[in-house]
Amino acid sequence: MGSIQSSTPFQIKEAPIDGHRPMKVRVIGAGYSGIYLGIRIPERLRNIDLQIYEKSDAVGGTWWVNRYPGCACDIPAHSYQYSFNPNPNWSSFYAPQKEICAYLQGTAEKFGVLRFVKLLHEVKSCQWDENRKKWILTVHRTDTGETLEDDADVLISARGNLSDPAWPKIPGLDSFKGEIMHSAKWNEKYDFKNKKIGVIGNGSSAIQIVPNLQKVEGAHLSCFVRSKTWITNPFGENVMRKLGLDPNKLEFSEEQRKEFATNPEKFFDFRRIIEVDGNTIHEVSIRGSAMQLGGIAAFAAAMRARLAKKPEIADFLIPAFGIGCRRATPGPGYLEALAADNVDFVTDPIAAVTPTGVSLASGRAVALDALVCATGFNTSSAPPFEVRGRGGVTLGERFAPHPTAYLSVAVDGFPNLFLMLGPNSAIGSGSLTVILEREGDYAVKCIRKLQKEDYAAMAVKPERVRDWDAYCAEYFRRTVYTDDCHSWYKSAGGDGDRIVGLWPGSTMHALEALRAPRWEDYDWESVDGPAANRLRWLGNGWSLTHTPAQAEGEYLGDPAWYIHPRFLDIPLPGRPEEAEEYKALPFSH
Ligand code: NAP
């Protein structure tokens, strides 16, 4: 039997338990994720030097950058916002890009995020310094051309999954003499009137662009489509019916918006119906499920009816794979636009781009004034800048043969790095924004532990990442995502056999998985090295809250904080299990 007494005396750290050492946190990107961190980090942590680097000239991320005509969110707006800042004023069930961007910028301003944001600062490289236990960053100021160096204890990538536009790999693309643009790099000044326009792709972006360009006066469209895809009814159509709204009239009236703003109960009920609908259609992702089979029958019939004028398009488009294998797209007006007289639906592959248009595999030439590449983003790869972890390994190397990150947030060999909307963190149904909130909360909890418990570094154990990867592979086998389709959810740019875009489960599953970090899945290093004083973080027996401040009778904190109404955890009276309020709560509470 060993003695429970240690041979070396305990060396007390002369600091209060909640002194929280200063730490530097750097965030890459000021979109939905970065703005969330800019709200929560200063709210929940102290002594943090926070900076959010944003390469664009404004905050808003993808909703600032994407400006193509018809750009909107095809998810109900009330389910695509911060849970704590619901907007009663969305003009429409599906909010347009400009409104989402204004909402994001308004939220950033309201919660004081802008003081942390450095605009026009593009992160060029991030390197883990094993001796200093810090990330070393180089940042390029796009306005002055300067390059600066910075360091950070914790690095959070909040750069979004859809921020690196992918141009099509077609020979001769650079030779085109007309106007060429990517959906994410739109030239708002270009006048499409009376132009011959080519649109490549039939993903979510093209599906919103085509109906808008088709209506431009004198325009003629050639839509180059090489893959089958499901065009579904609008997400949330059920909800509209449940709410007694006309699914064909998506705008909210002045009266409705006023009611949302002034009647919190009604507004809550409305939002709840939307969330319940989004979360209970999860079954559709399971191959062979009643919901999936019902959807296939209904949407195939709906597509045929909408394409009655050009049935050959329906023959080409209706897939053999399940709904959702490629991101299901509601696309109001898309099929109607394809059937219009001024639109050619071209399935003959593009062999090359020429100075005046494209030439097709069949040899046919299509003359074009403008070529729109709605060809998506590089999604299944590492960021386009260098991220080097332990031993000089780059994230690009680590992400071969496919990207994988434990619970989508942490990568082995990359200490103190957290990913927001990293690999496997989008979802096929339910709210994405609530997932990113939980990912942000997860990072905040980790930073708090590093700070309070004097850890210099935490790194997820490689075996846990392997377990996660194995879970993902096994889980997706039962879903339609592994059907035979081309989709950015898949590895190798859409051709691989691993699902890297989606969370392996439902939104509700993700919230539960991310709720409390499992500290045992990480390796920890103390700021004092391997021979660290045991339980050093206990400090000197004092708390900041009752440490006298300079002014007489004042303290550094509140020596009675626990009776403050904000911190009270009041039990329900009597027999809580019988109380109505209790029954309404999720049973996990
Ligand atoms: P995407 O879904 O990746 O679609 C890209 C399209 O370009 C596909 O049809 C692809 O065909 C085609 N393509 C690529 N290279 C091509 C080539 N060389 N020749 C011919 N076709 C080519 O990209 P996206 O439409 O930009 O959408 C990406 C994601 O952004 C969406 O899934 C969604 O998550 C998000 N988004 C959301 C909304 C919204 O309303 N919420 C709106 C827009 C975008 P293949 O399929 O054959 O590869």
Describe this structure in words.
The protein has 589 residues and is an alpha/beta fold. The protein has 3 domains: 289 residues, 3-Layer(bba) Sandwich (FAD/NAD(P)-binding domain), CATH 3.50.50.60; 145 residues, FAD/NAD(P)-binding domain (3-Layer(bba) Sandwich), CATH 3.50.50; 44 residues, no CATH class. It is built from 15 helices and 19 strands.
Summed up, what is this model?
The chain is of the alpha/beta class and 589 residues long. The protein has helices at residues 32-44, 62-65, 97-110, 204-214, 237-242, 254-262, 264-280, 290-306, 311-317, 334-338, 395-398, 432-452, 462-476, 507-514, 580-583, and strands spanning 23-28, 48-53, 117-118, 121-129, 134-141, 147-152, 154-157, 179-182, 196-200, 220-224, 343-346, 350-354, 357-360, 365-367, 370-373, 386-388, 417-419, 455-460, 522-526. The mean pLDDT is 93.
CATH architecture heading of the largest domain: 3-Layer(bba) Sandwich
The level 1 CATH classification of the largest domain is Alpha Beta
Q: Please name the fourth-level CATH homologous superfamily of the largest domain.
A: FAD/NAD(P)-binding domain
| The number of domains | 3
Shape descriptor reads globular
CATH topology category name of the largest domain: FAD/NAD(P)-binding domain
Classify the beta-strand content into a percent band.
Answer: 15-25%
User: What gyration radius follows from the Cα positions, in whole Å?
Assistant: 26 Å
* Side-by-side strand order of the widest sheet: 3-2-1-7-17
Low-confidence stretches: none
Alpha-carbon distance between the two ends: 42 Å
For the largest beta-sheet, the strand count, sense and barrel status come to: 5 strands, parallel
The strand count comes to 19
Identify the bound ligands.
NADP nicotinamide-adenine-dinucleotide phosphate
